[in-house]
Amino acid sequence: MLRSLGTCPEVADGSVDVFHFLDGGPGGQHEALRAVIEQSGTPFSEIVARSYNYGVGRQLISARRELLDERGYDRMVLVEDDIELNPTYLTTLLRLSDWAETYADVGTTQVWNVESGSKDELQPHLDQVELTHRHFVTYCLTKRTWDAIKPMLYAYEQKFLLKKPYSKRPHYRIRSFMRKHLKTGQKTPDGKRLNPPKEAVHNPFPSIRWRSTPTSQDAITSLALHVAGLHRITTRVSHAHYYGETGVHCTPELYDFMGFNDQGWWQWNTAPTSFSVRYKDDQGRWLQSVYR
Predict the structure, then answer these.
(1) Is the same domain home to 12 and 112?
(2) Are residues 245 and 101 in the same domain?
(3) What is the three-class DSSP state of 235?
């Protein structure tokens, strides 16, 4: 991830600030990780090392709070440590974010997707974007969107993450929390909207199953976006590769099941300068996406 991040011109020329958030507690390995970061040669602004174990949920919520609420940034790009970026990654993502900001009903943007195909098959579609509910392994979040969704994220953090380790969060209580918020209905943002056809829009959680619905902070982020009436969009063609087969939330079996083993991962030399939205596949069927 560090090596690929360093190939993005926005990092090399310092036009974006890079922050590394390191969780603490047993197994934190701060000194070893600092050495890896510093020896990589990839420029960075700061290493934020936690003094104890926050857990995945609090770590990610806190990073957004610190950058957008406390440090005054107008947007942030989250990159987890099991993503390899194309040199065009940040250029494409920031252009897409600028384009999306003209629509009041677009929330997050990303240029990572699971779209199979050869390089020749995918290259003609570099400018296409579509709605998504895919994982939040890397995406761009603006302050406008954060302000719309953070009340639910902060309530989730306060109720469920402060007194228990993230791995022991109370799943049933969180699912009850999710059901309650789903019942409030969707808001309609004011202003010019992308306003996709209703056939193309899907609830990330059409039902809340007591034993299986995800209860992660990513799930709550997706729910908060839905309730706020905000869409997630991604480029059809990926500018990054997710290789995290083994981790807190993934196994090789789950990696295959989710289709990550079929990512069309190619190196692109140019970034699109304009975007068009597709709502149907090449056979004319409505695209569908649920939270995964």
Answers:
(1) no
(2) yes
(3) strand
